[in-house]
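notes to self, project folder thing:

trying the whole complex as one job this time. last attempt i did each chain seperately and stitching them together was a nightmare. two parts in total, labels are on each line so i dont mix them up again. if this works i'll redo the older ones the same way
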Amino acid sequence: MPSLPISHTDLFQQVVASFRDVLEQSGRPVPETIDEQTILFGKGAPLDSLALVTMIVDLEQRLEEEYGITLTLADERAMSQRNSPFRTIRSLVDYLERLIAEESGRD
Amino acid sequence: MSIAWLRERMEQWADHPAIVWNDHPFLYRDLLARLQMWHQALDRHDVGTGQVVTIEGDYSPNAVSLLLALIERNTIVVPLTRSVAAQREEFLDIAEVQVVVSFDDDDRWRIERRARPVTNPLTCQLIERGHPGLVLFSSGSTGKSKAALHDFIPLLEKFQVPRHRRVTLTFLLLDHIGGINTLFYTLANGGTVVAVPSRDPDVVCRAIETHRAQTLPTSPTFLNLLLISEAYKRYDLSSLELITYGTEVMPESTLQRIHALFPNVQLLQTYGLSELGILRSKSRDSSSLWVKIGGEGFETKIVDGVLWIRARSAMLGYLNAPSPFDEEGWMNTQDVVEVDGEYIRILGRRSEIINVGGQKVYPAEVESVLLQMPNVKDVAVTGESNPITGQIVTARFNLFEPEDPNEFKRRVRAFCRERLAPYKIPVKIIITDDKQHSARFKKMRRSSP
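result (full assembly):
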């Protein structure tokens, strides 16, 4: 398997940065610790749909600007996954890795 | 002769300047002499009733007097300018143009024939009436350009009512209903049209100063550029009495800034469509976006929040698209409006409304807020489809100074949080060097690829 243009750790950090930004910019409290288990969206989550969309678009732009990775994160495919990729930080990082691996496999 | 009344008027003020072109005034007497010259030239070239003739030029004395001669000869006039050079052949074909008269920068002209019969039923109908015609192409910012065919006689009828004699800067050209309106309003009242070689704010301000222009008909986009450039600081604009704005929604913030800068200048919103002509209008006051529109020959009604208009000066129809009129002659303008008694406030084109999770966002309202941010030169707001909220609000910015994108995003959201409902705050924020307006100084709200 070819190595990805972005490491797992960097990807995690980008997701956390986007999450933190959207919480701060929408005036929501930022949890003390943000880790892989942190819930993003769904029951008991800090983001509403508008904030989630903002975070996703922000993340897409970061990956494009900083790593040259062009992805569409929110599409029919993401919406039709049995387990929502937007549930937790981990599920989002995993889903991103899968998308990026598919993209780089295509080149 | 279909416009005998206009010629009589023009003869009354023979020694008054009609046009200022290349900074040089040309008297009404001069225009009338050129008009005679044109009739002889057009006789020689066999250009007459029922032919379709293009004028490629701007407000030069020869081009303007040719326009008058062509109306008097009952031809169908298709004014084109350089800004549509890329679509020139297409436009000539759509209008079935038979004669092209083009002007160079020194106002010298060249005439060219095209072997092309008129087959369009609408054009044939107009030719049968024996009336002069006018074809105007829409800018096509929202699709392909549509060609509106007008009977020139009802279009010019309203100018028979005497109004103000003014020195007016021409902002829009002859290929635009606003440009045609400015020209004939001016000629019918003995005023002076000041033509400018470009729409650069410094060029425009210099012309206002030099020729003591009283009226500036313009667009909100230009007024925003005027603010950005600060060109108003470099010239004496004290002759200005009236600024009119139209063709797109005025951002509230731009209007307030212009009003603060020019407290003694009347600010008037105009409303017109190339399909219908320009309505008479009255803004509630200079700092208000509420406007009363109508006037002799125009009827308005609001259906489901959308403005409909019926006009005596309406076009016959499009040469290349189905008629937009219903059986009773009403046209849906697609402009969504708010109503307060006799006044309306235009919110935006129905097609440009952004739907975020079922809530409506008008681009102009968001732009108006964003334009107040420091370091923001211009901004265009559009909708982009998104599977979660249906659409998202996207804002494309031009900045004065480069800025870190992430830092800028933070700044935008912080600024918006106190001023806009959450669903109106831009989700996608793009910094670009691309111009955000068209050659006609109208904001382009391109959707993303």
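what i see at first glance: The CA atoms of residues 307 and 335 of chain B lie 6 Å apart.
need to look closer tmrw
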